[in-house]
Amino acid sequence: MGRSIDPDQIGFDPARLARIDEHFGRYVDDGRLAGWQVVVTRRGEIAHSSTYGLRDVEAGAPVEADTLWRIYSMTKPVTSVAAMMLWEEGRFELTDEISRWLPEFADLRVYSKGSALKPYTVPAVEPIRVWHLLTHTSGLTYGFMQTSVVDTIYRAAGYDLHPPADVDLATACQAFGELPLLFQPGTAWGYSVATDVLGRLVEVVSGQSLDDLLADRIFRPLGMTDTHWWAEGDAADRLAALYAPDPRTGRAIRFDKLGALAYEKPRLLSGGGGLLSTAADYHRFTQMLLRGGELDGVRLLGPRTVRFMTRNHLPGGRDLETLSAGGFAETTLEGIGFGLGFAVVDNPVPSRVPSSVGEYYWGGVASTAFWVDPVEEVTALLFTQLMPSSTYPLRPQLRQLVYSALVD
C-alpha cells in the first residue's frame, strides 16, 4: 500500500487519529462487528492504517493487511470509470440513447398504478440515456429494496439481492428492458441496477467482456492485483466471512447463504456489485481519482473528466432528498448530489456530518465505504463485512473522527 508518514507532517493529530481504533474497536469487542480495516491518507501519504478483530470469527482468523473484502456497490465507481474512459475515446456521448447499443431498452413502459400482478403502465416519454445510468436517474430499480410495486415485480422476475443462478449480464438486461420503470427517465433518483446495465453497455461498445475490460484497462495498469470477481486458492483463504446482525442480540452472525457466492465464478458479471478487493488495491483506485485520473505515471482519465464526473449532475442541481424515489441508498440524502458514478457533497450541513463541498464517495451493502476529498486532499477507506450497511452509522462516525483529527 505504501509507506506511512508521521501524521503531524500532513496536518493530522496522531492522538486524535487514535480515536478511530478506540471507537471502532468497541464494535468488535461487544460483538457487533467481526473485524474491520481503516486507511486514511492525505496528499497521497498514509496517515493512519489499522486493522482490528477477525476476518473469520469461526476460524479464529484475524483481519490482516491483505484481507479480501466483498466491496459490492463500491464496484459501481470502477465500472463508471471504465465507461468514462470509453467516453474519452469518443465511443459515445452521455446524451446518447442506450437503445442504440441495447435495443431491449427501445420501447420502455413506466409504472403508473395498480398492483404487481396487474400493473398499469404508460409509455416512457424520454429514452434512457447514458448519463441516466451513471446518475441513477434511469427509472430502473432494485428488487431487494421492497419499497415499491416495481420492486415487487423485479423480485417476481427473480431479481432480488442476487440474480437467478442461470442468468448472465446480457440476459439480465433483456429482462430489465421488459420490466416497467419506476419513474420517467431523468425525473427522479432511484438506486438501481443501472450500473449493471452500464456494464453491459461497456461490453457492447468495447467488444470486450466486462471482466476483461476492467482487468486490461484499470486493474493491471493500476497494479490492483487483488481485485477479482471471485476468490479461489490463496485468495479464498484471505476472504473475510460475511455477517449480519442477530435480530435478538445485535451480535454479528455468519451469513453464508450470500457470503458463499464469492467463492464461485459468477455467471453474471455485476458492474454494480460484483467485485472483491483489498484495502491496498482500492487505495490505489482512490489515489488515481484524487490525482485527477493518474497514478505512478499511468493515466486512466483526464483531470477535467474526473472533475466533471464529480460534480452534481442531478436535474436542476437538486439534492437526493428532493429527487429520491424512496428505498435504500448507500448515503444520506439532504445536501447530497450525484455525479457520474459517485455521490457528491453539495452542502455538508443538512446531514450534520463534517465533509468538504465537492467530496465524493460511495459504499457497499456489507458496510464498506470510501471517500475522496479533493479540497483537503484526504481519502478514507473502511472495510468490514456486515449486511446491511444501514445497521450502524459507521460511515458518518468515521467522518467525525477523521475530520476532527485534521488540525492544520
UniProtKB/TrEMBL annotation:
Entry superkingdom: Bacteria
Pfam family, one: Beta-lactamase
Parts of the chain that traverse the membrane: none
InterPro entries in the record: Beta-lactam-related (IPR001466), Beta-lactam/transpept-like (IPR012338), Diverse_Enzym_Activities (IPR050789)
Domain Beta-lactamase-related as annotated: residue spans: 20-399
Family matches, as PANTHER family: BETA-LACTAMASE FAMILY PROTEIN (AFU_ORTHOLOGUE AFUA_5G07500), BETA-LACTAMASE-RELATED
Name by which UniProt lists this protein: CubicO group peptidase, beta-lactamase class C family
Taxonomy of the source species: Bacteria, Bacillati, Actinomycetota, Actinomycetes, Micromonosporales
